[in-house]
Amino acid sequence: MDFKGIILAGGKSSRFGKDKALAKWEGRTLLERAVDLLESLRLNPVVVTSGEKDYSFLSCPVEKDLIPSKGPLGGLYTACCIFKNAPLAVLTCDMPNLTPELLKMLLDSHRKAFKVTLLKTKRNRFQPFPGIYEPSLIDRIRKVLEAGDWSMQDFLQQVSEINLIPFKGSQEVFLNVNFQHQIGEVSKTVGT
Questions:
Q1: pLDDT score at 188
Q2: Superfamily designation of domain 4-189
């Protein structure tokens, strides 16, 4: 199965105080780290972002949100509109603890019969990112967005064709960087 790598980087970073995608960790921005991760699996990454951000320094294509300011669900909608013929391996730019092995597990577990493949944690919660999403979800996503609901969790509750893969590893892999003080903490958590 040929997958398309998607990085969502359209958030406002309001809790972080500035564009967190450009925050540096070990000499690379969080966004570059996400691009590197997808490139390591030969997924030809594309960054989906809001119209006011300039990521032209990247070595991969950057696409603007078709419907701005709708959060990750809006970014997923944009990716589904642009890449209609391949399952989408989607991650966010602010998850520096993700590993190629974790993404490969998702890729290997995905089947076309499922619209979504996600990891399920010990607490029986599923993580929306990283995840594999079929572009055929486009109409369902549009309806939810038109109804004014931008919540990924609410949207996923409405999708019955979900493949949930049990994940028993450290929950630190799902760390989202939302505050500047976490940048120092991130380097302490990798490999735990």
A1: 38
A2: Spore Coat Polysaccharide Biosynthesis Protein SpsA; Chain A (3.90.550.10)
